[in-house]
Amino acid sequence: MKYVDEFRDPRLIRQAADEVRRLARPDRHYRIMEVCGGHTHAIYRFGLEGLLPGNVELIHGPGCPVCVLPMGRTDDGLALAELPGVVFTAFGDVMRVPGTKGSPLEHKARGAEIRMVYSPLDALKLAQGHPGKHVVFFAIGFETTAPSTALTLLKARQLGLGNFSVFCNHVTIIPAIRAILDSPDMRLDAFVGPGHVSTVIGCRPYEFIAQDYGKPIVVSGFEPLDVLQSLVMILRQLADGRSEVENQYARVVPWEGNLPALRALEEVFELRPYFEWRGLGFISQSALKLRDEFAEWDSERRFDVPGIRVTDPKAAQCGEVLKGVLKPPQCKLFGTECTPERPVGALMVSSEGACAAYYHYVHRMAAAGSLEG
Questions:
Q1: Mean pLDDT of the chain
Q2: How buried is residue 109: exposed, middle or buried, by Cβ count under 10 Å (0-12/13-18/19+)?
């Protein structure tokens, strides 16, 4: 299959790993953050850390939209699900995310009308088929999924559909990266840039990282060879004393982004003044809300949303893992009280969560090996 087999070729992977080892100076320690949770899973799934020299350290970033959402926003959405006549819809990743009174699946078990959907258009069709109900779509994601929400809202307006609304939790990647760069407890040498987000926003928005902070960033694909090639490109920049934005994922990511998708976002959304992120606190201009023209389809305007603020369980260290300060197994609850079967934090639930990735691809195999021994 084109563009998959080539990027899993063992010979090419070994060559790229050898080049990483050749470029990494033995007298220097490199700290490189992969922003996207998809990269974190690829790194663990394919065992890429085991191919790297010990002085090239990969730091897991906040690029998992389910993970960065504070618990209070989950509670706000579930408060809507408890209203009479409301059908709460969400992506599968959201269904097991814990709120203070349980996850959406647990609310469903207690009688709330909650359904999993594969796209916001599924929720729209549900509203069309059930005119006596009000369907709320719990919108979540970075710029990757926001265009589909925007197009769905444009369709809802075109249809004049009055029993559909969106509880918007879309966030944007650039302010989060800036917050990490400004964090006093985070020292990074470079970034592996997010591939999925970049298919929409392109590469140009990352130029401030190189220009203002002097850090290289390479937008990367998600196959093992993609990640290793991106590390080679980063290490070459560092060896040359360069700080640039480079696009390893050019087969998918256009430099200027997806212009029709960006136009849809501009038409439907505007930036929120402030939005709370798990682990990073309140970040200005970092999330999207519906423009006034779409107030009729805005759940936060149609309903009395509580606006709950909740701190994570004290023992859970999701924020530190999200910022890259801790690795998943360094959390006190990891693998004991917090597992994919009984998650305490969102990082263990999401398909892009760093804790879930480490648990599935490292912790579980290590545990199986110790039992065999």
A1: 91
A2: exposed
CA distance 7 to 10: 9
Pick the CATH number of 67-173+257-302 from 3.40.50.720, 3.40.228.10, 3.40.640.10, 3.40.50.11740: 3.40.50.11740
Residue 126 has pLDDT above 50, yes or no: yes
Selected residue with higher pLDDT from 324 and 239: 239
CB 269 within 8 A of CB 146: yes
Q: Are 355 and 331 in contact (CB under 8 A)?
A: yes
pLDDT at 75: 94
Each residue of 347-373: pLDDT tens digit? 888 777 888 888 888 765 565 554 355
pLDDT tens digit string along 177-209? 999 899 887 789 999 999 999 999 999 999 999
* Per-domain boundaries in the chain: 5-46+175-247, 67-173+257-302
Q: Which residues contact 45 (CB under 8 A, 6 or more apart)?
A: 357, 361
pLDDT in tens, 228-259: 999 999 999 999 999 999 999 999 999 999 99
In CATH, the number for domain 5-46+175-247 is 3.40.50.11750
